[in-house]
Amino acid sequence: MSNSFYDVWKQLSWDDMTLKLYSSNADDVERALNKNRLNNDDFMALLSPSAERYLPALAERSQMLTRQRFGNTLQLFIPLYLSNLCANDCSYCGFSMSNRLKRKTLSVTEIEQECRAIKAKGFDTILIVTGEHETKVGIEYFRQAMPIIKRYFSYVMFEVQPLSTSEYKQLKGLGLDAVMVYQETYSSLTYSQHHLKGKKRDFRWRLETPDRLGACGMDKIGLGSLIGLEDWRIDSTFTAIHLDYMRKRYWRSRYSLSFPRLRPCTGGVSSVKDMTNKQLVQLICAYRLRFPDVELSLSTREEQSLRDGLFSLGVTSVSAESKTQPGGYANENEELEQFSIDDGRSVNEVANAIKAKGLQPVWTDWLNELSATPSETFSNPE
Fold it and tell me: How does DSSP assign 331-362, residue by residue?
């Protein structure tokens, strides 16, 4: 048995996968669309250029599976940025250490102010985000912040630098429910070209983070790749293989997928590999057919009209009224933001758009209550 996903990744060939995906034809796509349980070969067929003309059938199947598994609901969450300090230099991020911008880390008092401002909007699920600076915004800072945040929100997710298993266990003991960790790209060569300085250059440490989360029994683990650094079709195939591995090995945890596309930011973004809106819809629907029970999350990076269309096609959770700058909910400081968002509607406007699709906006993660029952009551999905 593999010690971690790194051992699986070493056996995979980027070039072989590219050849296989781009040689998929109409017969492969139709065979995948007619199967009840898809494997990774079927998923590649649905991601291929040959599948683009089957998008209506793909969307119809995705919508049916989503309503079947998740009901007529869509969960709302909001990010809370605690700090924009970062000890890494990445070619695509406004928080990079080489960018000259005002840096800020919220104090205990400021965290409380932000929590109150967000809670007043009705949210009960929150995503904590920071730059990656383990000495000034590390485990001791998180240990101080968690009790405050947990007083306001029943479900707390993290999107911070990768931590050790023992650190994740400490935070889980303080009420942390979920961690999102994105590999950015599964190509080690491209990864090294975009991560220029700092601990984030350690490709293997980041790749093995989901294993550390699974080992400590985190309730939910989020995976994904950053769309724009490499060929999205191949990075998404690696993501699917990674998720398949995690679900089999750490089956007591829940999983989510995100598909962030690069956005304009301070310092600019270099060497972007574009993905059209139509291709994003293709990816989301293909993920739904491959993983009918996995949560799919959509952020305010995407434009309003696209988000409204995707509300009923496959996604199960969306952010709303997001601010990407520390302290942005209690005080406006636009010069501190990580990247610009595209859907700037208020949370009430987003909730009304969800209702207009015949769906119910959900503010509390009720599955958290289910996860409190003994794990023996759940069965291995495989």
Answer: S--GGG-SS--S----HHHHHHHHHHTT-EEE
